[in-house]
Structure to design on (342 residues):
């Protein structure tokens, strides 16, 4: 029996030959698809000035996704909090929680999600940067819970609309610093293994050791997010995953562009160092048949001792992406939405 919950992170990828409009329509379709399949959460990401990832505003996208789904929890993976006022973020997500009661997650992160020039443009001259992140976390927690924010001058601030249950706040990260802060803030912690696959499994031990019960969580809760592609054959899964391999190499060069086709990726003249990098990361993802992907997810969940696993699936063929999540739902025997309702 599966010992962890299975969820989805969607970065709204733009495919070569397609458009951002199509990418967002595919996000909407995928949300409804995995809702019906029985996945636990569906999170969308925040990236700016990107020709490859269309989701620059999770809160706007979540407003539409709530109307297209019925059961699945919806959230941000995540809001890059140093760019914004904690008060406005609290308002946005309390409004979403009011629209879709008890279904909204607020995942927050410290990374800029873009290049330094664009990050400065977003802040528009504000000097409140990442160094204020711990204070912003504390203020945001208080605003979600209708208590006094600790920052001087904000004590009487209250975010509306009031909600009976606040949105579920999460810490996102890919380093020891985020694990420590998540624990000290009493937040559930989602580690981005697809960003930093070289981390030691004791990252969650650090989080648990530093954990202090918070206003909404009395014990540690963990999630591991990783790249996964599932297909009917191992060969097909690897072929589909090759698109992201080439995109990743281009990302390191600073100009990734939309996600290429498998044909382009397989024909690409990789250098020896690029091939070595790709091969070094292949064991840090879950790519293969349903049985192979399940075995990998179970192995990683046990190695990291996590309660949840969140899957990032990016392939050029949108139908293949839908199929990947369907195959895994069948493999894990997730309960479809209609059965859960019954």
């Amino acid at each position: 029996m599966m010992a962890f919950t299975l969820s989805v992170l969607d970065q709204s990828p733009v495919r070569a030959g397609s458009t951002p409009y199509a990418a967002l329509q595919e996000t909407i379709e995928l949300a409804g698809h995995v809702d019906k399949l029985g996945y636990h959460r569906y999170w969308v990401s925040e990236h700016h000035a990107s020709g490859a990832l269309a989701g620059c505003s999770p809160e706007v996208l979540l407003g539409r996704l709530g109307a297209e789904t019925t059961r699945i929890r919806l959230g941000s993976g995540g809001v890059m909090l140093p760019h914004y006022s904690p008060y406005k973020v609290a308002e946005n997500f309390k409004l979403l929680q009011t629209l879709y009661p008890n279904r909204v997650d607020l995942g927050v992160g410290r990374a800029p999600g873009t290049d330094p020039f664009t990050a400065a443009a977003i802040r528009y001259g504000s000097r409140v940067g990442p160094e204020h992140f711990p204070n912003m976390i504390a203020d945001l927690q208080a605003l979600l819970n209708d208590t006094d924010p600790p920052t001087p001058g904000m004590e009487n601030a209250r975010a509306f609309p009031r909600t009976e249950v606040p949105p579920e706040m999460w810490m996102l990260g890919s380093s020891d610093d985020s694990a420590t802060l998540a624990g000290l803030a009493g937040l559930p912690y989602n580690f981005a293994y697809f960003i930093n696959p070289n981390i030691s499994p004791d990252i969650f031990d650090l989080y648990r050791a530093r954990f202090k019960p918070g206003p909404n969580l009395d014990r540690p809760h963990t999630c591991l997010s990783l790249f996964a592609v599932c297909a009917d054959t191992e060969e097909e899964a690897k072929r589909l995953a090759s698109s992201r391999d080439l995109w990743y190499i281009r990302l390191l060069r600073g100009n990734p562009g939309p996600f290429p086709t498998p044909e382009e990726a397989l024909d690409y003249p990789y250098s020896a160092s690029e091939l070595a990098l790709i091969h070094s990361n292949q064991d840090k993802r879950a790519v293969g048949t349903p049985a192979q992907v399940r075995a990998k997810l179970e192995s990683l969940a046990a190695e990291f001792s996590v309660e949840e696993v969140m899957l990032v699936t990016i392939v050029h063929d949108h139908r293949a992406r839908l199929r990947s999540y369907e195959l895994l739902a069948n493999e894990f025997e997730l309960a479809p939405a209609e059965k859960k309702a019954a």
Q: What stands out?
A: The first strand starts at residue 5 and ends at 10. The chain has one domain: 5-341. Residues 5-341 form a domain with the TIM Barrel fold (CATH 3.20.20.30).
